[in-house]
Amino acid sequence: MPFMIKEKYIRPTWDEYFMEVANTVAKRATCDRGRSGCVIARDKQILVTGYVGSPRGLPHCDDVGHLMKKVLHEDDRITQHCMRTVHAEQNAICQAARLGIALDGATLYCRMTPCRTCAMLIINCGIVRVICERKYHDGVESESMFMQAGVKLEYFHDEIEHYEKQ
User: Where are the beta strands (DSSP E) in the chain?
Assistant: First the structure.
């Protein structure tokens, strides 16, 4: 029998690992428009996770439908957003608050560029690095805020995340 060379197993980087966990967390999301998950980690340890869903005790999009609102932008673009849900990043930050976990110096992993509100929360709770799988179609303002605040923002892919009713 000929000698077979076995390929060396390559472990994922820590960033790849935490992003895979964030994508697994996203499977718990209760809004089918953009099932998203989030992991916040520090020193190679997961601190908290969060996924997009309605506030505790309120109906979920998957059960009763979306609560859509149109937003008119200064450049006359109109985008639609589901207002029934709390974003994955917000839920992770709330989970940390409930459990008394400080997020100072942590890294946040998420599917796409956090929205303006999430970006403000991320900055104020001391998170120093944000890793996104892709860009959000309306993430320029968040990118600017992160840069001004000194929060390092990185993307796995330089493409824009697309989902239904964007």
Answer: 37-42, 45-51, 68-72, 78-82, 107-112, 129-134, 152-155
Residues 6 and 21: beta-carbon distance below 8 Å: no
CA dist 91 and 115 (Å) reads 13
In this predicted structure, the answer to whether residue 163 has a pLDDT above a threshold of 70 is no
Cα–Cα distance for residue pair 97/104, rounded to 1 Å: 12
H or E stretch covering 105: none
Condensed to tens digits (0 to 9), the pLDDT of residues 72-92 reads 888 888 888 888 999 999 999
Cα torsion 153, 160, 164, 139: sign: positive
* 164 is a catalytic site residue: no
- Which residue among the candidates 89, 133, 143, 161 is catalytic per the annotation? 89
What the block records as the tokens of 92 is: 């992770």
Dump pLDDT digits (tens) for 100-159: 999 999 999 999 999 999 999 999 999 999 999 998 776 789 999 999 999 999 999 987
